[in-house]
Amino acid sequence: MKKAIALLLAGTMALSMTACGGGGAADTKADAETTAEASEEVTKLTEGLTPFEERQTLRLGFFTGSPLSYPFLFADKLGAFDALNIDVEYVCFTGGPAMMEANAEWDMASCGLGGLANGLFGYDFSLVDITDYEENLAVFAREGSDIAKSPEDPAAWKGATIVYPAGTTVQAVIAKYLNNMGLTLADVESVNMDNSNALTGFNGGTGDALGCWNAIALSAEDAGHVRITDSGQLGIKMPCGTFAKKDVMENNFDLVVTACTLFHRATEWVYESDDNMQQAADWYLEHCDEEGFLCNEDIALRTMEWYRGPSVDEWIDLYTKTSPDDAGLYTKRELLQAEKDILVGLDFFISEGKYTNEDRTRYLDDQRIDPSVALAAKELLGK
């Protein structure tokens, strides 16, 4: 579903003044101060970036309900894309694998590790950005159930039905937790539902356990379900990132550099003040409501407070700093930190039989983690 959400802040202010018409000098002064603040934010977000001579359109694969995508929206709402002569069209998804399958619809797309692995091995995309490290990938059980009473007892889990989005990072969390008890996914029954529907089904009595993430995980807690474990507790580092398609990298490279830079500057903006955090949460909730994604004001704010995306400098470091492969399996060159972070999750998928060590080698040989965008931003911004 495409939504052009680019806003002209000046136009928005003009409409507000018309709607409030006749408010007098105090209102006029307040409007002027708000306009000045908005202009200052745009200046900070776009510093060092050059507006395009011709209007550009960025088709963005957008992960509804997952903070890993939302700084793009925040930069857009603040007017930064418009100031640089860019329109953004949002193509919304609630799962990474589905996003990859629909790649004809987008130019760039952000998703979790399940979708990233799918994109790295199944398509000719460049991973140009790390946007988040998900710690709120969680597993729940009903209060009073055998699993809730004895969460580390294999007997409580064997034969249980777990509802979760298959092929996503939460599957890795579930598998890791089962492995810790000497079990595998073959010892349970898996029911595949997308993130939001999984909770709806679980609330309605489907399954014995639930796997979900972010806002839906917070909703599961609010519904009274018992958090059994999550990626943070298990020490699983699950990076999320942004792909750019080959034709976009070749034909509109500057657009990719600009978009990624705005993403990380908007991430920094969120944490500059409590007011910014609240505004980000309000925009997050507004978008979730538009897409029919389960959320409320409290969950929106908690979701944004949980999110910790990289700053501009941290993004550049991920794509420029190198060191040897921690597993010692790849010795042809040192690896980018971004490559190593992806390998943490990828090696787990390999241990589960989803991918092979040959896939691992090919991923590194082909250098699918592309540092060129971060390097261009580093030069452009004088880092």
TrEMBL record:
Domain SsuA/THI5-like: 134-273
UniProt keyword Signal present: yes
Keyword annotations: Signal
Signal sequence residues: 1-21
Pfam families assigned to the protein according to its UniProt record, in alphabetical order: NMT1 (PF09084)
Protein name as annotated: ABC transporter substrate-binding protein
InterPro entries named among the record's database cross-references: SsuA/THI5
Keyword RNA-binding set for record: no
